[in-house]
């Protein structure tokens, strides 16, 4: 994308990214999970298993009567259970949010009761990882705090995993045995070894799970040798096939008389306003940082499936060939701010001006990236090349996204708030210029996955359906890096469900049954 580099946010804290993300909770299309089992060859990994695991993880606590506007704020109790993760609705809705939901009718996107029943298609107020008091619910408070007093649980922070320790007697065999982990104390730089009683389980995510495997000698032979790492298990698939969703926006200025009603830009863009809100928050007074403002930029996400004949027409027929049908292709989000916030040749947010953004995320991208090592140091960063927009279909989808976003903004419900398009601006009209705009402003949607895929090894896999790393014993990976096909939704819901199902698989393998 025009040789750009950008930061990729990760949650380096207790609770991981569930403690820092945008709070949206969804599960996506049943067809994706059934594909895991039926096409990718992973018995037991299907929609019904993931649905039951999601119910095990969640409890719905949302109360629309506590919000200022409960338009399209509905849910189906059958999609939630009695688990530790709380799911609810945002407490404060900007006035322009319901207008956006109504405007999506121009794309044939209409209100639905719940988007977590096996199809995300449609629009409603999004479900979020929020408790009864509109405060964040995460894996830290939902899972860790409940287990923190267990005698067999020790959590080390500021500990960087350097490599996996293998039984030297098994090196050179067809199955090397993992017996522990080496980690670096981030405060002192000293190395420590920890032995495992049963297994080592990696859950370091799409970037660091393949990174740790490679630092341990598991991965592409030439890449490992380049940095002086002796291959223990050669698997050319480690760190390959990275999938992700991307996002970019069409941005409008807000009419001055609606600056605070339709937008929350002032709180983000004006340091004086931000400081005032922060002071009020910490004093316990009324503030847009208080519990009602759990998600100031909104959480309204519409999901669109593009018919096959339309995909062919716009030059994205490869999506059909890849069997990425019967699912959502675009997520259309509403942001009551300038999003993503950075300056480029198309401008940037100005002080004393409020903005709203229509954002599209491509949920059926065909471009594939890589995660490689750049040294043999455990404290170095992975070398990430997401390879966005490398496939013609993805470029066609980006051009179409601009047209979709503009159609939504031309709806009377949105025009009532708009003072005009500021990015990309009225001069951008050709397909070539629209694609250039996408290349210049597109950002990750923070959904990287599939770098240690659960597939047969000969089909590009790193682990089997029991999460076991090929060529090893006592080593598994259980995180988003194992997804063969990326779900058509934000990854919070799928990650919790995958973790619950993975825990059940591991316990059964050890004869522990369900938990």
Automatic annotation (TrEMBL):
Mention one GO biological process in which this protein takes part, according to its record: secondary metabolite biosynthetic process
> What GO MF annotations does this protein's record show?
flavin adenine dinucleotide binding; oxidoreductase activity, acting on CH-OH group of donors
Looking up Pfam families in the UniProt record yields: GMC_oxred_C, GMC_oxred_N
Cofactor dependence is on: FAD
Q: Which UniProt keywords apply?
A: FAD, Flavoprotein
Task: Respond yes or no to whether keyword Hydrolase is given for this record.
Answer: no
Please tell me where FAD binds in this chain: 161, 446-447
Q: What region holds the Glucose-methanol-choline oxidoreductase N-terminal domain?
A: 205-219
Q: Which SUPFAM superfamilies match?
A: FAD-linked reductases, C-terminal domain, FAD/NAD(P)-binding domain
Q: Which family does it belong to?
A: Belongs to the GMC oxidoreductase family.
Name of this chain's protein: Glucose-methanol-choline oxidoreductase N-terminal domain-containing protein
Name the source organism. Answer: Dothistroma septosporum (strain NZE10 / CBS 128990) (Red band needle blight fungus)
């Amino acid at each position: 994308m025009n040789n750009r580099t950008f930061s990729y946010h990760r949650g380096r804290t207790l609770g991981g990214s569930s403690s820092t993300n945008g709070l949206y909770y969804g599960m996506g299309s049943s067809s994706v999970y059934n594909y895991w089992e039926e096409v990718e060859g992973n018995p037991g990994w299907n929609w019904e298993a993931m649905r039951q695991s999601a119910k095990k993880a969640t409890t719905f606590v949302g109360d629309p009567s506590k919000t200022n506007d409960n338009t399209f704020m509905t849910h189906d109790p059958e999609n939630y259970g009695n688990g530790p993760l709380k799911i609810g609705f945002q407490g404060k809705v900007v006035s322009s949010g319901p207008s956006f939901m109504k405007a999506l009718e121009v794309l044939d996107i209409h209100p639905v009761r719940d988007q977590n029943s096996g199809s995300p298609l449609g629009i409603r107020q999004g479900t979020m990882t929020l408790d009864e008091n509109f405060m964040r619910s995460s894996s830290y408070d939902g899972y860790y705090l409940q287990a923190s007093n267990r005698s067999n649980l020790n959590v080390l922070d500021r500990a960087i995993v350097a490599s996996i320790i293998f039984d030297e007697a098994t090196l050179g065999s067809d199955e090397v045995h993992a017996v522990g982990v080496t980690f670096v104390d981030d405060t002192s730089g000293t190395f420590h070894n920890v032995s495992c009683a049963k297994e080592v389980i990696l859950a370091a995510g799409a970037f660091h799970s393949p990174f740790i495997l490679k630092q341990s000698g598991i991965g592409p032979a030439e890449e490992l040798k380049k940095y002086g790492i002796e291959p223990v298990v050669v698997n050319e698939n480690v760190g390959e096939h990275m999938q992700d969703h991307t996002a970019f926006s069409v941005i409008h200025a807000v009419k001055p008389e609606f600056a605070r009603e339709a937008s929350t830009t002032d709180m983000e863009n004006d340091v004086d306003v931000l400081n005032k809100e922060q002071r009020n928050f910490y004093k316990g007074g009324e503030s847009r940082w208080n519990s009602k403002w759990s998600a100031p930029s909104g959480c309204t996400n519409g999901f669109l499936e593009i018919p096959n004949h339309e995909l062919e027409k716009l030059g994205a027929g490869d999506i059909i060939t890849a069997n990425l049908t019967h699912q959502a292709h675009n997520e259309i989000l509403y942001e009551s701010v300038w999003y993503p916030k950075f300056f480029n040749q198309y401008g940037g947010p100005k002080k004393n001006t409020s903005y709203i953004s229509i954002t599209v995320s491509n949920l059926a991208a065909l471009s594939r990236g890589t995660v490689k090592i750049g040294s043999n140091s455990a404290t170095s960063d992975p070398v990430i090349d997401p390879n966005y927009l490398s496939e013609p279909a993805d470029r066609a989808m980006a051009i179409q996204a601009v047209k979709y976003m503009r159609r939504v903004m031309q709806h009377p419900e949105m025009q009532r708030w708009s003072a005009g398009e500021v990015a990309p601006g009225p001069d951008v009209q050709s397909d070539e210029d629209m694609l250039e705009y996408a290349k210049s402003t597109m950002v990750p949607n923070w959904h990287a996955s599939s770098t240690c895929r659960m597939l047969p090894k000969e089909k590009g896999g790193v682990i089997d359906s029991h999460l076991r790393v090929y060529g090893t014993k006592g080593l598994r990976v259980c995180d988003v890096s194992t997804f063969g096909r990326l779900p058509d939704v934000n990854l919070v819901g799928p990650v919790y469900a995958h973790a619950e199902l993975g825990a059940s698989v591991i316990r059964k393998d050890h004869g522990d049954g369900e938990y």
